[in-house]
Amino acid sequence: MRPISGPKAVVPAPCSVAIRSTCAGVGTSSHLAGEYFFKVIAGIDAEHVPFQGGAPALTAVLSNNVDVLSTSMPPVVPHVKKGSLKVLGISSLARGFREFEERSWVGFFAPAKTPAEVVARLNSEINQALALPEIRERFANLGMDPHPGTAAQFADYVRKEVAKWAAVVKTTGIAQVQ
């Protein structure tokens, strides 16, 4: 996918139609990324239509009840391949909107008091699994990119993600969910 030139390549200005966007749930990274894109990057006050889960949100877009879905790649890949969904952009610094990156990720967590040797063993096993060609191929087919590393590197990444999303919530004015 070629990098798009900016938000106006997706939503031309002036936008004379109301845009209705959705995601997998209020407070998810997809919700925050969608709000940030429309309000901050594109300068458009799109209406967020909340759903409880990705399946109902995806169904709403496929049935033309909502205009735009902000989501991770795995649930939409089959629909994109089939031609029932059009990719508008990827919130990636390298491949999409250069102003913002929302990278869905899956991580493994253990209770805080898990012994260090157990954490090291689990981390090693996870990294070995992520290195397997069949696992990498399966992830690639789902639009996922595994990033093996140490538990400390992942903990640092999580801290940075928490700070990034806290700033997005503050910037967009999204009410915090308690």
Concise summary:
With 178 residues, the chain is mainly α. It contains six helices and three strands.
Key traits:
178 residues; mainly alpha; D-Maltodextrin-Binding Protein, domain 2; 3-stranded parallel beta sheet; 3 strands; 42% helix; globular
Biggest sheet details: 3 strands, parallel
End-to-end separation in angstroms reads: 38 Å
Report the total helices. 6
- What's the arrangement of strands in the largest beta sheet? 2-1-3
Strand content: under 5%
Based on helices, strands and strand pairing, what is the structural class? mainly alpha
Q: If you average the pLDDT, what whole number results?
A: 83
Give a verbal description of the structure.
By secondary structure, the chain is mainly alpha-helical. It has a domain of 97 residues: D-Maltodextrin-Binding Protein, domain 2 (3-Layer(aba) Sandwich). It contains six helices and three strands, in the order βαβαβαααα. It has a three-stranded parallel sheet with strand order 2-1-3, sandwiched between helices. Helix 1 crosses helix 6. The longest helix has 22 residues. The chain is globular.
Topology readout:
Layout: E1 20-22, H1 29-41, E2 47-48, H2 54-62, E3 68-69, H3 77-82, H4 116-131, H5 133-141, H6 151-172
Parallel strand pairs: 1-2, 1-3
